Amino acid sequence: MPATVVVGTQWGDEGKGKLTDLLARDMQMVVRYQGGHNAGHTIVAGGERFALQLIPSGVLYPHITPVIGNGVVVDPKVLLEEIGALTGRGVDCSRLRVSGNAHLIMPYHEELDALAERRLGRNKLGTTKRGIGPAYADKAARIGLRVQDLLDAKIFREKLDLVLREKNAVLAKVYNRLALSADDICARYLDEYAPRLAPLIDDAVGMVHDALDAGEHVLLEGAQATFLDLDHGTYPFVTSSNPVAGGACTGAGVGPRYIDRVIGIAKAYVTRVGSGPFPTELHDQQADELVERGREYGTNTGRRRRTGWFDAVMARQAVRLNSLSEIALTKLDVLDSFSTLRVCVAYEHDGVRYDHVPYHQSALHSATPVYEELPGWREDTSAVTDVADLPPAARDYVDRLAELAGVPIDLVGVGPGREQFVRLGRERSGRER
Length: 433
Fold this sequence. Notes:
Strand content: 15-25%
Structural class: alpha/beta
Largest sheet: 10 strands, mixed
Shape: globular
């Protein structure tokens, strides 16, 4: 059975958690394929709000096997706290499995992340300071510790002693900080975390392929989004992994021929957290209105998100980069109060018009958006469940976004709840692979 990928098309916070939770009804396995606990996926089910960081969004369904794939970086403390919090609310986490090949976030990663960001000063990248970037850097440098190392105390200690020589030297000589103790780290990771995580550690690649071979539906869930991708995002203001659909292959251990559906998630407007270019960003009362109506504050950090109008240039680029078969549009209801809406259809820079994201950073940072205005609907859409009940102007807005992006929009979110969505009933795109 082919797999489905869910990927963000903007700068994150598009509502991937809600969509993954919705799609998981018809799945048997949900695999998180990259990122760490810098991602926050929010699900509202049965009137309760669940904020997930590492655990795949399908965990709320008893029939789902949630898997943390090899492409994820895992902070054991955070994972165990998340398991404990969900269990305390009646969610069964016993089916959760963690790839033995996923990399561990260590205490020095978090400390070095915060120190490096502070040292950059006004040129800071806007990281969450949770050790994600340094953990991926160690993975690339081939000095990282993996989840499977928790199962062998001797190997864990040997690897830790080796890497601490370098990390402690940097902490002392560059940042004037005290050395970290290998004994203290081992006491936490081997004595406290390892016994609790050991039953969950497994061959995730084997599990995914067994499910696919058995004809089961597998959903591959990304964190962050297309324009935070290390290779294709607004570098250097990006994450340290590959959220694009191609990252699902490496982060979950499946080849591209197993994937036949790629769903891009987009807000009906755009938000961003942290530094970096944002062509359609608003700095006025409309920005405040989007923040308040959309509750645009980080799930994990609480930081206020930057807001702006929908960017069709980004959407078209996301379609290209991910081979999107369709887009699911979220938070349409946030626009209910606006009398006029604007959509960016192109950029201009030094007399040149760009219909796709310019490759050069100077053009992107200085790009002027070319807007098209559309009428608002000034009606409450939060209770709409049938496409026939959508205000005509809202339907026209969705139709125009689909036309500009070049792929269908089949699902429209009109609120945070599980049931607050509208299916437009369109056939999926027949894009050739």
